[in-house]
From TrEMBL:
Pfam families: PhoU_div (PF01865). This is Phosphate transport regulator. PANTHER family: UPF0111 PROTEIN YKAA. It comes from Streptomyces djakartensis. Gene3D superfamilies: Phosphate transport system protein phou homolog 2, domain 2.
Amino acid sequence: MRFRLTPRETSFYDMFAASADNIVTGSKLLMELLGADSSARAEIAERMRAAEHAGDDATHAIFHQLNSSFITPFDREDIYSLASSLDDIMDFMEEAVDLVVLYNVEELPKGVDQQIEVLARAAELTAEAMPHLRTMENLTEYWIEVNRLENQADQIHRKLLAHLFNGKYDAMEVLKLKQIVDVLEEAADAFEHVANTVETIAVKES
């Protein structure tokens, strides 16, 4: 077997950047969902499903490259963790959109817009950060800000739960809406997992 001995396998950087750019696409679809009526939501869900499939393809490409590369830019476990966490974000965003459509939710509760705005900002920061993996420079502000956003998302989530359980919704509606806001919170957590993984990689490489 021939091994191509190069200082570093650089295609990983491009694949991580592509995966993060796809997450920005997903966050924009979430924003579209906020202003869409029920008739438009099914079409948004279809586009989100296509974006999620593109995310899966990107993740599989990273895993394939990982399995076929003799030399990697950083630890294999960290590459796997970063790719998996990026994939989780898309999965959660797609699940949230799908639930809105499947449950035929007429109106999302106040505060969901704030959740989605936090996710959109985290998506932008993540996409901006991925190219910096090449040099491991200018990343500190990224993971600090994403951790701050995740704390903000926690606060929004708690307020949403308090709102859902204030007695204005019937029990079945509470169950539906809670599942949606919980999945959006999981997406925020997944952004933090990505940021924490990037921090771990940067510390190891410093």
